Amino acid sequence: MSVTVTQETYDSVVIGAGVLGCSVAYALARDGRRVCVVDRNASAGSGSTSASSAIVRYNYSTFAGVASAWESAHIWRDWAHHLGTGEGTGLARFIKTGGLSLDAPGQDRQKVLGLFDRVGVPYEVWDEARLRERMPLLDTGRHHPPKAITDDAFWDDPTGSLTGYWTPDSGFIDDPQLAARNLMDAAVRHGARFRFRSPVVRVDRTHGADGTGRVAGIGLADGTVLSAPVVVNVAGPHSGAVNGLAGVTDGFRVRTRPLRQEVHEVRAPEGYGPDGAGPLVADLDLGTYFRGTPSGGIIVGGTEPECDVLQWLDDPDDYGVHPSRAVHDAQLYRAARRLPTLTVPGTPRGTAGVYDVSDDWIPVYDRTDLPGYYVAIGSSGNQFKNAPVVGRYLAAIISACEDGRDHDTDPVEVDLPRTGHRVDLSHYSRLRTVNRDSSFSVMG
Ligand SMILES: Cc1cc2nc3c(=O)[nH]c(=O)nc-3n(C[C@H](O)[C@H](O)[C@H](O)COP(=O)(O)OP(=O)(O)OC[C@H]3O[C@@H](n4cnc5c(N)ncnc54)[C@H](O)[C@@H]3O)c2cc1C
Prior knowledge:
- The protein is an alpha+beta fold and 444 residues long.
- The chain has 2 domains: 7-72 and 176-255 and 360-428, 3-Layer(bba) Sandwich (FAD/NAD(P)-binding domain); 93-172 and 259-356, 2-Layer Sandwich (D-Amino Acid Oxidase, Chain A, domain 2), CATH 3.30.9.10.
- The protein has helices spanning 19-30, 63-76, 79-83, 109-119, 128-134, 176-189, 239-246, 325-338, 387-402; strands spanning 7-9, 12-15, 35-38, 55-56, 94-96, 99-102, 124-126, 164-167, 171-173, 193-195, 200-207, 213-220, 225-227, 230-233, 256-267, 280-283, 288-292, 297-302, 311-312, 350-358, 364-367, 373-377, 413-416, 421-424.
- The strands form 5 sheets. Strands 6, 7, 8, 15, 16, 17, 18, 19 and 20 form a 9-stranded mixed beta sheet that branches. A 6-stranded mixed beta sheet has the order 10-3-2-14-22-21, sandwiched between helices.
- The longest helix is centred in the last third of the chain and has 16 residues, at 387-402.
- The chain is globular and about 70 Å long.
- Flavin-adenine dinucleotide (FAD) binds at residues 15-21, 38-41, 46-49, 51-55, 199-200, 234-238, 242, 261, 263, 353-355, 379, 381-385.
């Protein structure tokens, strides 16, 4: 019996229809490439993007991090124009809340504020009196280092008081999955095709007579072959597995690993921000972060304090998808120390998602040793906000490399038109030595 194999040919195949994959697809399609995006899930943005807190903040530890976030914020604020569509319903919205970052040992505030000055991100430095005046619901006590709530010392009195800095332009995107769908729709308007329920099981390559080769396309679980001279791995927490299919893993100095994460939602205390626009608070003193939600709640996440055991996964599909009592209580009680009028509910409510964490918590946007095979991976719990520029970064790298430039030795730079900065994309190289400037946490 003969088996019919369906074969289709494209200029580029993107593996993964999360917010980053859809952004890459949109940028490539806008450049005139015939793009096919494949995803094993049933819809765009239903992987780790759907669990995202979607916070838009600017306090990264590197110039590229701050500049990318600041440029992206300008795009989020002008989303309809970026997508080439009219304003109206059905678009994700940027909700500006302002964001407070509390000072903590190990956080180099001067370095971050220096980067803000260089990039042009507005901020105010708050002493304790200003903190109390501007955010009266917050307890300003210093508790560092963060402790497990099972440790009696967690309940100790504070050892001093806090200061911090405020970025008035911080906020969040109200629906991260919708943002991915918006990018998908924009890519489709430029001719891109999306195939859902289509797991990639093979990355194909050609073998040249001289022993070299290049990517030739991918194979799907149903036997379909998609031929393309360019394949981009944007598989989120599955990035390592897909790199394994392509046989490129050994060419990476910076590796990626899946890490389980929980985010919890509770009712906001009375007076926490107007109309669901309660500000973002990044609290590395206690090891938590929280922000308001449009429905009058607060979502609470963690910042990987040393006292917590991180839940690294061998298999990104094999994890508890429901929030656990232990993580819920740890994150909520930390938040409640900072916001004493917050009620910690008896039943955990929230979501568990998976970060795709690189060795230095900075993503890898790069070519690989297999010509034609590219990656946008290692987003480390902090790249949702940068999705608008990441598509452009990959399109620039792909265009240059396919034109014969060696991005490893002659790095591509990208101009950011809305803010006037230029980012050297070697910052995101797979060949970098681990970046010691990083916070080595979700802060990037
Ligand atoms: C709990 C949580 C909170 C976060 N909070 C923030 C935040 O506040 N701010 C911020 O900036 N960032 C945040 N992030 C990070 C941000 O959400 C991610 O960086 C971003 O969503 C990653 O998008 P992606 O497209 O790379 O991955 P994903 O959305 O995971 O998409 C990858 C896609 O690849 C598909 N795929 C995988 N393997 C295959 C295969 N073999 N074949 C076909 N398809 C495949 C998957 O089905 C999936 O749809 C958070 C992340 C999590 C998990």
